[in-house]
Amino acid sequence: MLETSPRGSARAAVLCGVGGQLPRLKVGNDELAERLDTDDAWIRTRTGIRSRHFAAPDEATSDLAVAAGRRALANSGSAAVGTVIVATTTPDRTCPSTAPLVAARLGLTGVAAFDVGAVCSGFVYALAAGTGLITSGVTDRVLVVGADVYSRIVDPGDRQNAVVFGDGAGAVVLRAGHATEPGALGPFDLGSDGAHEDMITVQAGGSRLPFDPARTSHAERHFSMRGKEVYRHAVSRMAGSAQAVLEQAGISVGEIDLFVPHQANLRILRTVATDLGLSFERCATHVQEAGNTGAASIPLALARSHVDSALTVGDRILLTGFGGGLTWGSVLLTWPSLPPAVEPSRPEEGVAS
């Protein structure tokens, strides 16, 4: 049976900590333009991106995830959790999953730990998984991390994609609480359409097409995306999913204080906000400085907004994501009272240790 508060509200997952991490290396448009036969104006016009961060050669997804997770745990006031979930498309290895390593490096050996693979929707899916574990009574505290190192899978010579993606990690801590208190998550909306699984993909490296230098092409070994089709699906699915959550919650878009979409590119963000009837001023963005960081983009945007003091207790926040699969998802969140957070772009010492 679910715990209930004196007011009768059901047990819920409550956000109680947030943190982010970007790699040290910041790469501006001019640096990419030199080798991609393009220029800053072309990149900004099509994506809105000015810069992005790339992981060092010895820096893996787990390194960024550990740093972001450590910051989120510190922000929550406790280093103890019962579960670690890492949403990523770029795990350290195909096998095993990255979450157990992240947990161990955070001193959390023995806890449940697993990865979620839903590409850029991964963080919302991971939030749903963490919420389910808490509301069912399996655990009382969950660390949810979104982390990706796209520079490992995007062809650096790919003019269309190399300018869009960056590396990073963002994390939140969830605790057991009640649906009426600030920080409570829900309702959720999740969906997928596998008929379009080849729209955003890395063809080689799995059981369908194992990596083989003699049999797989250069293109098959790198990330590919059909941009125009992705644009249409991303706008439609994010707006539709976000609207579904508002309908479940019984509130209007006018009651949303901050909209935090997956940071795909600035054009998509503006279009989704317009389709929802939201002014762009209520849309959290950091894609201009960090690029598309995959599963890390939503928690990084939350961390950035918290650092900037753009959120107040009780603010209604709408999160929505879209990614390969195809997958999409949204969730509503009321903002809790949190201690000040550390600037996501300020590197920690020894992050890759």
From TrEMBL:
Q: Which reaction does it catalyse?
A: malonyl-[ACP] + acetyl-CoA + H(+) = 3-oxobutanoyl-[ACP] + CO2 + CoA
Q: Where is the active site?
A: 120, 262, 292
Could you tell me the gene encoding this protein? Answer: fabH_2
- Chain positions covered by the region annotation ACP-binding: 263-267
Tell me the ranges covered by the Beta-ketoacyl-[acyl-carrier-protein] synthase III C-terminal domain, including all copies: 246-335
Q: What is this protein called?
A: Beta-ketoacyl-[acyl-carrier-protein] synthase III
EC number(s): the record gives 2.3.1.180
Q: Where in the cell is it found?
A: Cytoplasm
Matching entries from InterPro entries are given as: ACP_syn_III_C (IPR013747), ACP_syn_III_N (IPR013751), FabH (IPR004655), Thiolase-like (IPR016039)
